[in-house]
Amino acid sequence: MSSGSIHPYWLPLGESFLAAADPHIAAGASAYMKNKSVFFGIPSPKRRKLLSQFIVQHGLPDKTEVHGIVMSAWKQPEREFQYAAMETLYKIKKQLNGSHISLFSEMITTKSWWDTVDYISPNLLGEVIARFSELKAPTINEFMASNNIWLQRACLLFQLRYREKTDENLLFDLARTLSGEKEFFIRKAIGWALRQYAKTNPESVGMFVSSTQLSGLSRREALKHIGDKTFRAD
Predict the structure, then answer these.
(1) What's the rounded Cα separation, in Å, for the pair 215 and 188?
(2) pTM for the whole thing?
(3) Are both 173 and 231 inside the same structural domain?
(4) How far apart are CA 126 and CA 187, in angstroms?
(5) What CATH code is carried by the domain that includes residue 87?
(6) Whether 74 contacts 110, CB under 8 Å
(7) What digits encode the pLDDT tens for the residues 159-168?
């Protein structure tokens, strides 16, 4: 924890994290994350409990200070701070709006790895777009045009919780557009997004997969729960 750069809001939580740190767990977590981050080494249930206790005692951040508070946590070396920032944002998700899209983008493109991107995409970005549908097209267009794999992954994953409200045409268009990508995290996300939507509309997903040239990974992931069979329109 870098006390010189951390927002005062986080200091009590940082002290709790330091007290609960376990170097053995930290080493294992860092190895699991391909050494992309360092960790205090706090199991997730314990970390969430510490965050809840912290919020009870110190409250949630004022929405006018959210950007500075969140990015302060993002600058900390220990990954648990980034998890705490995401989960704190989720607790005030109903207060978030289009003005926070740029914050999500900054979070996604800073210290990028699947653990943070896969939380932000459906839980924060997806939550805001669900309530402000007019943000969908400009946000997705901007993220896709960036050619940043993590922003593009977010485009594929933001609808994971939408179920029957999924924009099927958008999902399929994105999967089709990115189907030629060699990047593992894009191919995996295509399959994951399709697999999730298949729980709601297996026939549509099956027909899409049957008629679209996808990577083997994307195809296997998409069909994991509905089987590799031929789907066709009547």
Answers:
(1) 9
(2) 0.94
(3) yes
(4) 20
(5) 1.25.10.90
(6) yes
(7) 999 999 999 9
